[in-house]
Design a protein that fits this description.
The protein is α+β, with helices and mostly antiparallel strands. It contains 13 helices and 27 strands.
């Protein structure tokens, strides 16, 4: 999901098909007005359009699909979005109404709504408008109140409803779902936020640990953040990069601060706003929805993908926060081997060359999502909610747990050792022993081998051999494993580091190295990316008040590579790679303590990076290791 529009801007156009904060990938059954594609919904549902008034008088455009069979009452299933709700027009029907075909066949009143200020809705759109806990009058509105007012109107105005409402959405519509959970309408009985962002500075679309996600932000804002006037269904043309080589395109820009001058020309005001807020100030903290997740009383199905290229921090942090603030709530976590939104769109059993052995999205749709809503909205089925429904990659099996991470997992550290060795045995070398490399901002480490102008998603499981051969990437690996080893839960990089400059980025990757004689020759010695994360060193003590590094001084920094549930199979190796650039998914760090958004070309300098690996200054990766199953 993304942010993208300036505060105080008039209503803005959303593109609708670029990357993540753009709508997630459409379901395989997708949307289509064709008579053949929508034959079932045309035969069994009536479509109606409404302008639903909010408490401040603004009217939101809403499409309601109601079952033609009026012999029974149906629950309402709602999706609110800023991405448009096509097809518009009374005679054009969606092929798929609910999250999956099962809902359409069983019968639901399905509601789609253009968010305030988007497409046919009135009002002014503000991306991720903060929740207002105190509302002094009808003019104080937010997405929570808009959801509440919509539900109230639907219950009174749509016949044959059973008085229960469910809400779901992926990415930004997932964030809308979370907003609906806050100060929820009493009739809201089940919510499924899916890949919702929670904090755009810490871990979602626009920054990761303070590091700017250059490629994604440029692409999303260039297509989505232009001011529009009036109500419109227009979609902006994708930006023309003029080349499929994103690495070259972004390197030629030079510095982040030149983007407006070269391309945006003050037509994308949000980009300029971002440039004015380089640190974690109120511009970012006001939108952190984790602060508002108190009093969640109805059941929640929180959904994430292990290989989500945009919003994995969001759903995991939302799950953990609800657990902490609402310990008695029925809060379920479902995570599968998916890219962003893949549980609704991946019909196959693989991601790139990595196979998961079964159509995991269908399993989720039929065995988790559909039973969840059936049980809480219709009293149907024998749904027994688990705390966590998670897919174990490597062995390719679904598991359920009554706690996440599993309580049986024990924390262990993979230590970096001499000679590029990686081991659970701590180093024995004394003194300030380290490995080093030169980081050159003029030649940053690419994040992918793909030649495409936009980010894509296959890089989340991509073969990392292209990086392992570079002199500015340190590589450590275990001996071949003598037994399966399963990790479950957070992965923490705990590193003692130094730079010759006063700031640096650090990227740590955890990798599964396949054996050379793997049956599929395409995967022989394949270095599958399992998890990775960046940290901008100046934020090591505070995201709000950055501090320079002391040149060449060993400094301990820890950061979260996020949760994984993966088995490294017998005969495979575990690998850790360490580097200081990840371009252009992350902007380049000049190696100087400064406001990087206003860096000049001459500010970028080569720096020598040290990674310590001694007894007194160890570096490694902490993982939660599951006990080996007894035979």
């Amino acid at each position: 999901m993304s942010r993208g529009y300036g505060r105080g801007a008039t209503s803005l156009v959303a593109l609708g098909a670029i990357l993540t904060f753009s709508p997630p990938p459409a379901p395989a059954q997708a949307v289509g007005p064709q008579a053949q594609d929508s034959l079932y919904t045309r035969q069994h549902y009536t479509k109606s359009d409404y302008m639903i008034p909010m408490r401040d008088g603004v009217k939101l455009f809403t499409i309601v699909y109601t079952p033609k069979d009026t012999s029974q009452k149906y629950p309402i299933l709602m999706n609110r979005t800023p991405y448009g709700i096509p097809p518009y027009g009374p005679d054009a029907y969606r092929r798929l109404l609910g999250p999956s075909p099962e809902f359409d066949r069983d019968g639901y009143i399905v509601v789609y709504q253009d968010a305030r200020g988007k497409f046919r809705s009135e009002g002014v759109f503000q991306v991720q408008q903060p929740y207002q806990p105190v509302k002094r009058g009808p003019q104080d509105t937010d997405e929570s109140s808009d959801t509440y007012d919509t539900i109230e109107w639907l219950l009174k105005s749509i016949p044959n409803n059973n008085g229960r409402v469910g809400q779901w959405g992926i990415s930004y519509p997932g964030w809308e779902t979370v907003m609906g959970m806050i100060a929820a309408h009493p009739a809201l009985k089940a919510s499924s936020p899916q890949a919702s962002p929670s904090d755009m500075f810490i871990g979602d679309d626009f920054h990761h640990n303070g590091a700017f996600r250059f490629m994604y932000v440029f692409n999303w804002l260039s297509g989505n953040a232009r001011v529009r006037s009036g109500q419109t269904e227009e979609r902006v043309k994708p930006f023309d990069y003029g080349t499929p080589d994103a690495y070259r395109f972004y390197l030629d820009i030079g510095t982040v601060g030149r983007v407006n001058e070269l391309y945006f020309h003050d037509q994308v005001p949000t980009w300029n706003e971002f440039m004015q807020h380089p640190n974690y100030d109120s511009y970012w903290t006001d939108q952190n929805l984790l602060n508002s997740l108190d009093g969640i009383k109805h059941p929640i199905l929180n959904v994430a993908g292990w290989f989500d290229q945009e919003d994995f921090y969001g759903p995991m942090s939302i799950y953990y926060t609800i657990e902490k603030k609402n310990p008695t709530n029925q809060n379920t976590l479902a995570v599968g081997p998916w890219r962003h939104g893949g549980w609704s769109s991946m019909t196959g059993d693989s991601l790139g060359l990595i196979s998961f052995g079964s159509p995991t999205s269908l399993h989720f749709q039929r065995e988790v999502q559909f039973p969840f809503f059936q049980y809480y909205l219709k009293d149907k089925g024998s749904y027994k909610p688990a705390e966590a429904v998670v897919f174990e990659t490597g062995t390719n099996v679904w598991k359920t747990y009554d706690h996440w991470p599993p309580t049986a997992a024990t924390q262990q550290t993979l230590y970096l050792n001499a000679g590029g060795k990686l081991s659970f045995t701590p180093p024995t070398d004394t003194g300030q022993v380290y490995d080093s490399y030169v980081n050159d901002p003029a030649k940053p480490v690419p994040f992918t081998q793909e030649q495409r102008p936009t980010q894509g998603y296959l890089w989340m499981v991509e073969d990392q051999r292209f990086a392992a051969t570079r002199p500015d990437v340190l590589v450590y690996q275990t001996d071949p494993l003598t037994d399966n080893l399963t990790i479950a839960g957070p992965i923490i990089a705990s590193m003692n580091l130094a730079t010759s400059g006063t700031d640096a980025d650090w990227i740590v990757k955890l990798i599964d190295v396949f054996p050379g004689n793997y049956p599929d020759p395409r995967l022989g010695d394949y270095q599958m990316l399992v998890g990775a994360e960046v940290f901008r060193a100046k934020y090591r003590n505070s995201y709000a008040k950055p501090e320079p590094m002391v040149p060449n001084k060993a400094t301990k920094i820890e950061w979260d590579l996020r949760d994984k549930y993966h088995t490294f199979l017998k005969g495979h190796r575990m690998m850790v790679q360490v580097q200081s650039s990840w371009f252009p998914v992350i902007d380049r760090n000049p190696g100087k303590f400064m406001d990087i958004y206003h860096a000049k070309p001459e500010d970028f300098q080569k720096t020598t990076q040290r990674v310590y690996r001694s007894k007194g200054l160890p570096s490694g990766v902490r993982v939660n290791v599951m006990p080996r199953p007894t035979s």
